[in-house]
Amino acid sequence: MTATYQRIVLASRPTGHVTPQNFRLESVPLPAPGEGQVLIRVHYLSLDPYMRSRMVEARSYAQPQKLDETMIGGTVGVIEASRNPNFAVGDTVLGTLGWAEYGLSDGRGLMKIDTRAVPMSAYLGTVGMPGVTAWYGLNRICAPKPGETVLVSAASGAVGSVVGQLAKHAGCRAVGIAGGPDKCSYVTGELGFDACIDHRQHTDVASMARAIRAAAPNGVDCVFENVGGVCLDGALACMNPFGRVAVCGLIAGYDGVPIPIQNVFALVAMRLKLQGFIVSDHLDAWPQALAELGRGVAEGRLKYRESVAQGLAAAPEAFIGMLAGRNFGKQIVKLV
Q: What pTM was computed for the model?
């Protein structure tokens, strides 16, 4: 064990695009666990879009990230020292220790994970918070019936990729929206979506709506929305009566750009249900979701892809790239 470890703190709040200057890499003393505590060596760090909204002092579902404190983030790692009877040295655990090489915990919020059939990093993606987000939004809000059409924005990402595969397993037509031909080829060829629309080729609402109609000739019954803007407005123009829209994220507006809904009348005309959700509000659903997702990965029925940045110092640029759509699949940082 080293005498110090590195962490990244929020140095300043971004205005507009996030920049490397909003972060600071620090070396701090390595703590010793007190009574009831464990010390964890972080192996993988998760980078997720929700972190962007926590970087500003806006009213939201959670408190803003504090300045000069370790950036929030999901982690998987191995316990190196324990004074907690519920955890042993060598246990692999999932937690929220943030952008740091080590973390101290009293055990609350830690979950032991089994890496024999599911890789450690997958617990930050398909068998973690993004996967449960996909499972909950699709099954509990969209609740698609066999034969219906499910449209998924950011379809090659950590959440969207799971939504489309689960929709296909449920007997639905899955249509994705992704950025660029490589991502669209992955969505249809590897993940098994029926069609994928390249949003870079359809930058206005009318063009996006035409592309959706071509990919979903029977209309859209369910939308799993991760982006907003042109994607959402184009989708609303193609909805069938009594369609459902699960709003998971609105990454198009995470840098403070307004994202008004132009086709809002469709909510009335098509009698649509539009519901935003935060998966941490629904902890009762996690055990069932994680069990199903874990089996899917272990049996090879749920496929996923990761973009892996190497070393803690690479986290800010990887995070900025993820917000710009440069990642392919789940964005993680490998520390060990």
A: 0.92
